[in-house]
Amino acid sequence: MSTRRACVMGWPVKHSRAPIIHGYWIDKHGLDAELRLEEVRPEDFGDFLAHLGERGYVGGSATMPHKEMALKLTEPDARATAIGAANVIWLDNRTLRSTNSDVAGFVAALDETAPGWDKGADKAVVFGAGGAARAVIYGLLERGVERIHVHNRTIAKAHALRDRFGPKVVATTDHELSAALEGAALVVNAASFGMHGNPDLDVDLASVREDAVVADVVYVPLETGLLRRARARGLRVSDGLGMLLHQGPGCFEKWFGVRPVVTRELRERVERSLAGA
Ligand code: NAP
Asked: 74 near 94, Cβ under 8 Å?
């Protein structure tokens, strides 16, 4: 049998930790498989995807900036359609199918680091209204969070999320933010705040619930200013690396037919690669 190959399609893509993650699982399961990085310009993405099989791939993952185009150019499942972005693509006979594994990644990371986070989690505050925020909001709604305040630099995008996901999502202005944070069970940074070269998310966590969980989708650096302050206040935290790792099994299973697990050893391996990034 020939080697099964999948690829990560992005622009740029060199920084991706996916080869470390999937390479670890390929070794663990003793598979004849490979994950490659493919730098694909936005204008070339349609053609690249149309010839994915001819290029020798059984599937791939779409990363920035291709996730929305991936949805349009494939047969997405209900989850990817609801979120408006697809990141996992695979060939089913000659049909390109897709789903979104960012939701599962975010929720599984929360379950791992803050088990029971969803019990009585009636109110959440989410910062950001881009692709990551859509996956976060979908996951929170799926797990029964009653009210999700979305705060974003461009408020129109927060309103668009209310239109997409319904009245449990509330577009929240600067002025309304402190009331939204009061008694919140969950605070999530789903924007680029705290990422290297970006300002920290300057939010006051004093009034959130005592047992609140603070999550970040950013993983470079591993501990953002937001998470540092949450820890200092004694709150449970979930970092962006957890989300990144836990979105992997959904991809791997579609491409290689085995569902791998996220281990401590894998996390440490990726942490080492991020040190100094
Ligand atoms: P995106 O669709 O481009 O959205 C970016 C979001 O950040 C928007 O809400 C944007 O606000 C906001 N933003 C950017 N610069 C800002 C600034 N200077 N001040 C205030 N807000 C700012 O990107 P994305 O795909 O959602 O990615 C967001 C972050 O999530 C990135 O750091 C990405 O690496 C991370 N991510 C992590 C994972 C993971 O597995 N851990 C998965 C996906 C994404 P506007 O709408 O006003 O522009």
From this structure: no
pLDDT for position 196 = 86
pTM of the model: 0.95
Sheet containing 123-127, strands listed edge to edge, beginning at the edge strand earlier in sequence: 169-171, 147-151, 123-127, 186-189, 213-216, 236-238
Q: How confident is the model at residue 29 (pLDDT cuts 50, 70, 90)?
A: very high
With a 6 A CB cut-off, is 87 part of the ligand 1 pocket? no
| Position 182, amino acid | E
Helices 102-113 and 248-256, axial angle in degrees (round to 10): 130
Catalytic site includes residue 67 = yes
Confidence tier at 146 by pLDDT (50, 70, 90): very high
Distance CA 236, CA 218 (A): 16
Atom of ligand 1 lying closest to residue 157 CA: 46
Number of CB atoms found within 10 A of residue 176's CB: 13
Q: Which of 14, 67, 123, 254 is catalytic?
A: 67
| Ligand 1 mean position, distance from CA 219 (Å) | 12
217 close to ligand 1 (CB < 6 Angstrom): yes
- Whether 105 is in the pocket of ligand 1, judged by its Cβ within 6 Å, is yes
131 lines ligand 1 (CB under 6 A): yes
Looking up tokens 């470390």 gives: 20
Residue-by-residue DSSP string for 34-103: EEEEEE--GGGHHHHHHTTTTTT-SEEEE-TT-HHHHHHTSEE-HHHHHHT---EEEEETTEEEEE--HH
Q: Burial letters for 231-269: b for 16+ Cβ neighbours within 10 Å, e otherwise?
A: eeeebbbbbbbbbbbbbbbbbbbbbbeeebebeeebbee
Give all strands of the β-sheet with 75-76 in edge-to-edge order: 33-39, 4-10, 59-62, 88-92, 95-99, 75-76
